């Protein structure tokens, strides 16, 4: 039978012991024919790099900004302690715990010595630390995935599974391999029908995954592995289902599992900050014609949601979701008929690494809806004011709420959505629907976001235009 390639996210990895007898074993029998790609245990990558949401410094940020060595040394020790604590929670055998702890100590102290040597080297004027920062980021990120993969392998071997630790992190290896070569070399001679590969989500390669994808690297490794090995299906195990809305906002009884959607909708979800899969990873699967399934790891009997290139059988709303944004508005009366404003704004946003979610414009105003910190936007405003001294430049904290579906044609989503918001005395500041009929966007005050999601979900799902609750593949 063709094998599957399956990814386990960090939050689910922290409950790895709960998954042993369902995800990896069935009635005590190993479920072979499956290759697993694992993320670091929950919170570990935040400690190694920086906190994904708050931006609190981890080892990387402390090292990159260090005036002295004490800060990053302490951060690395904290990460080490958290890694040991993580595997002590999921491993039961004392010998396995000791092996995992030794593994952590070897990797952490190896990384520490590497950073000390680099810091010493860069104390000479001929060497610059900033030219090595991306390699440092890659080195540190690989520690988390190598640890979780090693721990998972120990746990499964103890349960009688012929599990193999597949380390793509390039630890103390020579050679400058491409991603494809790294994966193909590591998988050579492995037979998924008789053994269970546990693969690191980080892969050291010539392309530099962190440079291109930053924290989305594990999904890129996962998708490329599925494509290169000819997987029958790629599966992502999360701790929740892909649903029609956040159950906490619309109610557990009202929410519906998507069941089936396509990569177009998945891309829209990613744009709104709720990735089913990184867009670049989705591209690899799409081009290799490998369908993706997203499941709840803790509901193994549920088929989850299939994502492929198939069109919808009928027009339907599939999801209502939202995102806090900042509206960057540039108004200049003399803009009419003059080229270059849009390109200049895009250049500034790109320079400050600001992600654009959507945009609107008219004769003399260009508004970008962006996902960024206020600190970044202050720099953007300053640069734009220097570029366009006569312009009025404003920023405003708002929210964007989106209604998504593979095919929204004929559902009058814009009209019905505005009516639903009006019925709840919610006044949108803007709304738009593109000709592809896959999403309709409503711009509101940030305080109205959750109420708007609930109102739109009621409007469309009570009209019975949503997909059925559960759709098996």
Key attributes of the depicted protein:
single chain, 473 residues, alpha/beta, Carbamate kinase, VC0802-like, 2 domains, 8-stranded mixed beta sheet, 6-stranded antiparallel beta sheet, 16 strands, 41% helix, globular
Explain what the structure shows.
This protein has 473 residues and is an alpha/beta fold. The protein has two domains: 4-239, 3-Layer(aba) Sandwich (Carbamate kinase); 319-461, VC0802-like. It has helices at residues 10-13, 16-24, 44-48, 59-64, 70-90, 94-121, 133-158, 179-187, 209-213, 217-228, 247-250, 263-271, 279-287, 341-351, 374-387, 413-423, 449-461, and strands at 4-8, 25-26, 29-30, 34-38, 163-166, 196-200, 233-238, 260-262, 292-296, 305-308, 319-331, 355-361, 365-371, 392-404, 430-433, 439-445. It has an eight-stranded mixed sheet with strand order 5-6-4-1-7-9-10-8, sandwiched between helices. Strands 12-13-11-14-16-15 form a six-stranded antiparallel sheet. The chain has a two-stranded antiparallel ribbon with strand order 2-3. Helix 5 runs antiparallel to helix 6 (94-121). The longest helix is centred in the N-terminal third of the chain and has 28 residues, at 94-121. The chain is globular. The relative contact order is 0.10.
